[in-house]
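Example (one chain per record):
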Amino acid sequence: MKLNKIYIIGVSKCFSANISLEQSILKISHIDSIFARKEDEYILKKIKHEHNIIKSSQIFYGSKIQFILDYITENITKKNILVLADGDPNFFGIAGTIFNNTDEKFRRYIEIFPAASYMQKGFASIGISMSDSEIISLHGRNVSNLFKALYTSKNIGIYTDKINNPFQIYKILMEKGFSGYYKFHVLSELCSKNEKTLSLNIKTEQNSNKINIQKALEEFEDTKNIVILEHVINKKNNVGENCNNGGADSCGNCNNKSRTANNNTGNNIIHTGFHTDADISTDANDSINGGAAAVADAGVKIIADADVNANANVNANVNVNVSVNILGINDDDFIHGKGEPTKKEIRAAALSMLELKRNSVVLDAGCGSGSVSIEAAAVASEGMIYSIDKNKIKINNLLKNIKKFKRPNIEAMLGDMPAIFNYLKDKFAAEHIQPDSIFVGGGGISIDDIIQTSFEMLKSGGIIVVNCVMIDTLNKVMSYIENNKSKIRYEIISLNISRLESISYSSYFKALNQVYLIKIIRTK
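Predicted structure:
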């Protein structure tokens, strides 16, 4: 007896002959139920005309995903079910959702027949190889997926949505220092009569040109589109590197020339996160980002980098390779104020004690100009760094350093520590986030409250590292440890660093300030 199955078939408007559909239809004896979009009705009419398999099928158009999942769960092995999907349904498509929702013992009843995807069509249209590209989806997903991809220095293909739209993606690249690194392609309504392509060289524009670019990109907000970021720096540096020994003729693209490339309110917190900017939000009531209204209720004013003059005098560094040092950056390479940054020997010890992983969520409390954040962001390249300071000038310098060192996964936050920690505590609870590591580089008289709130946010097994110079701070931290020994483990190191200094006739070791690093591990 032939088993009933779930057939997930990709269809593509980009080709008149849907080969995957034609091949799969020949394998199916009959279909009981069909899930399709209304726009695919013409395909079903064609099948009905040429085959007998769907003449008595029940057809569901435009069903919600949960209804499809519930229906499949209830009828798997009982009915032959056909699901029509765009392009390759197993690549950021419905097939993965169905697989994940299906008990493992029933997954063998699912068959997938992919078609060419819009992303494949997009790369082909602008003449870029997909072989060494990162493909990501921001459709209903967190923008941090883009940050991870930017660390790869590859071409990037992006599925967008109404919130993470082309202008937002462009804005991220500009704010995070990637001006000059990518050619920016937007491909809209592919394979339709409304198909449109826009290509931009991302460079540091004058204000008038920025406004024109914003207007051009905002035209794509309400259309189906993909964005392709073509990495022009790598292309210039690596022409022919994959040609083996066969010369240009053995490598299809080796002869190609490189392509040219806001005020304090409420809790005294200013949030410099770009992805929910009130002035460019696509929907103030949107459920994904909470919208401007939700932010205002939290007493947080959202601003852009320009509001703290973060764009000044940073563009000279635009041609620095993205693969700058991860650790051990020279102190003077940071843009910083007097008494900063945290010295690189101290940073090395502190980052070691934080035990960072690639996907760690990290808080840098009292971040200053951000030297710890900058190095932590490269180690936790698939995670997120929340950098906090109450000094506007220091946050200004942090934003400049984010651009200089190309660290997209840092979110800068300006505000008083206890208040901003309470805000973050609520934010993390709502988003089901728990920090893995918290570095406390400042705090003063509020250090007790900061450590307590840090502990409450921290996941079990998470780590707090406190950097102490003042004896009063050390005593307060030790007092906290003494009162909480039942739920923590801890270790303390004292660092006495001296650097060799030369004078006219000799050399000597110049001592830096003695520093105590206290590591607190949450055990309960």
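Caption: The chain has four domains: 6-116, 119-250, 262-303, 313-522.
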